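Can't paste images in this forum, so I'm doing it all in text. The chain is below; anyone willing to post the predicted structure tokens underneath?
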Amino acid sequence: MKGNLTDMGIGIVTGGLSGVAFWSAVLPLDVAKTIIQTAPDKSSTRNPFAVLNSIYSRAGLKGCYTGFGPTILRAFPANAAAIVSWELALKMLGINRD
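Text version of the structure:
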């Protein structure tokens, strides 16, 4: 039983940290995507890099990471649960990855 709890703890930490790392890398593109999707003027640029350049010019790096706190608060538990669920499903199906 102790080994299962250790495996679950490792899954929680690695899954959570991988989610944080992922969103730290792609959040600026997600911010640009959101701006493109919600733009009232449909003729505005649809180039995410042009949108990011505009954000960076106006608000700096901080503007590119708008919503970082809530995203990270969601990313850690969601990805931790996904990894633990995946590992549990493999065990329940009898799939050995060693």
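The CA atoms of residues 11 and 87 lie 8 Å apart. Helices lie at 2-38, 48-64, 68-92.
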